[in-house]
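step 3/5: co-fold with iron/sulfur cluster
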Amino acid sequence: MSQDWEIAIQRTINNNVPRVHRILENHKYILDLAKKLREAKMRVLSDLETYVEQTLESVKRTGGNAYFVNNAEEAKEIVGKIVGKGKIVVFGKSMVAYESGIRKYLQQLGNEVWETDLGEFLIQLADEPPSHIIAPAVHMTKERVAKLLKEKLGFDVSESSSHEELVQKVREFLRNKFLSANVGITGANAVAADVGSIVLVENEGNIRMSTVVPPVHIAIVGVEKIVPTLEDALIEALVQAAYAGLYPPTYINVTSGPSSTGDIEMKRVSPAHGPKEFHLILVDNGRLKASKDPILREALLCIRCGRCHLHCPIYRILDGNWGDAPYSGPMGAMWSYIIYNDYKPALYCTHSGNCKEVCPMKINIPRVLEYIKYMGNKQRSDK
Ligand code: SF4
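step 4/5: write tokens
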């Protein structure tokens, strides 16, 4: 175990775990919202194909473009056609874009690509996989971040620089990238099937910039993020923020098609000041198959709050190197199997059960992992 990691993760636990407890204690309605959200997501997962169709139709009604893709290759092909070559691209945070290898693919095409979520930006600079689902650079201490920024970008910082100074330097650097970007690429916390809106929750403001400043916005999202209504999507944003320990969130963004205005005779026309084009790419990559399995289906309820990681003894002793990037920790052990057909991360689980206790969606993670172990053993003995 690296000492750097040990220090970084201990600081993270100290900062995050008591804060989530306080949030849930002070805002008890979040528990009811989480229950309601689980029920809404279960409805979708029991008939996912129908909800995919409904979502595609709804996005088109708002003036957006919507696509369903089976796998990463198809996702890359569509994104490559929309972006082209020689562009500046800013990424908000999209796990599915990472899963599909979109950033590296766009770079190979000759585009300048920047991650703008601070954690993602740091792992891009370090060329390392993320170690946590919402805080990808959680394995880096402040001192290591300073060293990295100095080495890779020549920033005038040192190991004694404060958190605030480091963030300010990145802010100055990325501000120009946002303003000159041709395309913004994000994920979504939730997609509303009834109206075709995507909802994104964040604190940095980078998602707001990525979705509004460039003339083209592409959202790359797993099909399991579909919820029945915009109300459910907004509930997901609140629940995710609370269980991530960042409540109230600084921003909740709703995007429904390209920018528009109704200011002349109240006729709604597009575009206005924001993007001229909005593209939603819904990615399957194993999710539809999982939705048909009564045990694996549970894993698709995950809202990526990252709470299970910090309560898991195995995540802590494995240096964060648990799961196939970008999926880590207990949720990552489930998702590594769903997306990459890799059962090995599940084998590390010792079934302490903490993850199930703290999960807002009440996913029975130990049971899912036990099932994946069984499926993995079966795969091996069938060979
Ligand atoms: S499995 Fe549960 S606790 Fe873990 S990230 Fe997903 S929703 Fe959060």
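step 5/5: annotate
The chain has a mean pLDDT of 95.
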